[in-house]
Amino acid sequence: MLTLFRWLLRATVALIVVLVLTMVLTWYFATRSLPDYNATYRVQGISAPVEIVRSTENVPHIFGSNDEDVFFALGLAHAQDRLFQMTLLRRAAQGRLSEVYGAKAFSADDLARRLELYRNASESVDMQDDATMAALTAYSAGVNQWIAQVNEQALGRGAPEFFLRPQNISYWQPADSLAILKLIAAASSNSAATEILRARLSMAWPDRGTDLLRAEGGPAALPDYTSLFPGARFAIPERRSRADGERSVENFLRPGDGLGANGFAALPARTAANGALLANDPQAPLISPSLYYLARLQLSSGGVIGATIPGMPVILSGRNPHLAWGLTPAPIDDADIAMEEIQPGSPDRYRGPTGWVDLESRREVIRVLDEPDRNIMLRFSRNGPLVPGFDAGLSDITPAGFVPSLRWTGSSNSDTTMSALMGLMYASNTAGAAKIAEGVIAPPMNVTLADNESIRQLTVGAAPERAASHPTGGALPVPGWETSADWTGIVALNGSSQSTDNGIVLATEEAGTLALRRSRLSWLLQDREIHSRDSFIAAQLDMVSPAARALLPIVGAELWFTGEPAAAGSPERQRQDALNLLAEWDGAMNEHLPEPLIYSAWMAALQNRLIRDELGPMADDIRVLHPAFIDAVFRNRDGAAAWCDVVQSAPTEDCTTIARQSLDRAILDLSEKYGPDVTSWRWGDAHQARHTHPVLGQIAGLRWVVNLTQSLSGGPFTVSRMPGLGYGTAPFETATGPGYRGVYDLADPDSSVFIISTGQSGHPLSRHYDDLADLWRRGEYIGMSLDPDLARAAATGITRLEPEQN
């Protein structure tokens, strides 16, 4: 017995020693990839010494003797802090995520290959101007020099994720940067996804289905979708469900997502300090680390500071000494779905305008982690690539014997968007910047500009031209052989300027007649005669929901309580308490209030109750609120009140009944989660942002460390846009938001402020991994000066690059 005890003791001690050693080794190898910001490196690819001065917040201020050396150092700094993220973005554009994530990423790779994101980017390299090519080449060399340093000095493979997702890190190429820009363009456009949804609505209820989207763009009158394909058979719509909380974080920039932003500016005459103001807050998936990265570059034309995306050598939104600029996706219908009829018995032939013709085909191989390679056949019609997997609902509207294809302006293989964005950094005034911005192809965008004397806002990019005889005006998928549905051309928007409204310009990505955020932003900017940096910050952070202010008075018109209180604890009393709170509410989506939660749950339940019986299983896929639709129903605009009657029930329901039933349902659901006391509920308990790490965030035990969870104010229609997921047990959890905010004051440029949603570093063990996250959540900013002396005085680290002597 004593011998057994001794052996058990020895085994226990040995196990503890092994565990401790394992933890020590894990910590050692993980920390090896933390960059030393005070190091000196001898590198190839620069002509003179370069300094990377790191501020307190780990923002690199880069000083070199020429622009190529500065871009080289930016590439090295990006790789120091975000190497894994850069390779992930590159893989997403290349269609190679499956090599590190396995079969769950296959559909994303398949779509990226079919859209030819990387091929078109590679062919566009030669279309860039000389300065951009020099910057892309130098930037790539900087990334590659850091990869070489990692290999030579055994710096933990460059990032801890590479130990868990083993892969060879191939050297960076200029085409990689262009491919990431293509990926962003694809994610910014939701035109094709909206077409698909509109067609599904038309099929679900031909008479009124498209009411749901009518105020959000597209022609007022549309044909029944099925009438475009006489005699065609359609399958019964599939019932799809998404697992609670499922988010494809490895492919966080997905084609068709539809990203957003606000951009606004004021003339010097409208500002307190007599200098132009500009604000910009591009949306992004809320991941950890943030998609954005702050940087300052000392170029030959002067200092440039603002937001970059690791993998690209450009300041996308920022300022130089004389000019500030911001980018907003433009609501341009830049894509169409065409249904190609396949010749029976010949899968490689399709119906063209004059008969059956061959599809162009190319076979590619997708390597899948821990599984055999998969062969895919890429096929192309005269309209574009065949994309059967573009959208989950696409199969519902594809006739039997047909395959969908996609025509998209972003498919250009002579795309000069990178050169245009690069040129903005060198521009010294709005007129010159506007001319440079004309080179943008995809995504179409509103560019907001401000210099010391003027402001300007212009729409740039490529837009399709459609004939007046087009059968749907681009609002629905069309038969691929119909020449009347062809684009008559692709026109460059050529910087068509937006008018200045009393010294103010503003833009959002919203389309249609009910642009709620735009109307709220316009009111905020015109409500005061003189603006300051602080008033622009307040507008950018505004959390009042114009949707709530518009909907509550008409939805609750017959429900506001005026009688005796019901018994405490009863459902009637809960309803009365909820209505009393909403009656006094100003629409502010404050995380500490119960009213935003009651309103959001009520409107979600109301919309679901309105559409469920008419749309059937498709209602599960309507995950965003459509305020214009609810407004039309309760005002009975064009007979829209017909949605209130539940067809399957014997009585005829009116809208007041549906509104009351929906409120009761919402209160019941909220009571189960948050208790019976309506006044104790808090919007922030349900409205949270989970910044998920694309690798470590999916590992039990690590996700609580690397994923950042924050309660947030705001909502889907506030100026500070924070939309919810719309499904699962956490429908109000937000997955996207303003990943970067910047406000630029040209009267006192160094008082300009910036923030990103996490921290600068992508390394979970770095103190800069999440040091900006709380500031971002609270609506605070950091300053970034172009004064070199200030940058060096506040430096927490200076990396010196010296040319390697041959």
UniProtKB/TrEMBL annotation:
InterPro entries: Ntn_hydrolases_N, Pen/GL7ACA/AHL_acylase, Penicillin_amidase_A-knob, Penicillin_amidase_dom1, Penicillin_amidase_N_B-knob, S45. GO terms for molecular function: hydrolase activity, acting on carbon-nitrogen (but not peptide) bonds, in linear amides; metal ion binding. The chain crosses the membrane at residues 7-30. Keywords: Calcium, Hydrolase, Membrane, Metal-binding, Signal, Transmembrane, Transmembrane helix, Zymogen. GO terms for biological process: antibiotic biosynthetic process. The keyword Secreted does not apply. The keyword Lipid metabolism does not apply. Ca(2+) binds at E195, D333, D336. It holds the Pfam family Penicil_amidase. Binds 1 Ca(2+) ion per dimer. Its cofactor is Ca(2+). Belongs to the peptidase S45 family. PANTHER family: ACYL-HOMOSERINE LACTONE ACYLASE PVDQ (PTHR34218:SF3), PEPTIDASE S45 PENICILLIN AMIDASE (PTHR34218). This is Penicillin acylase family protein.
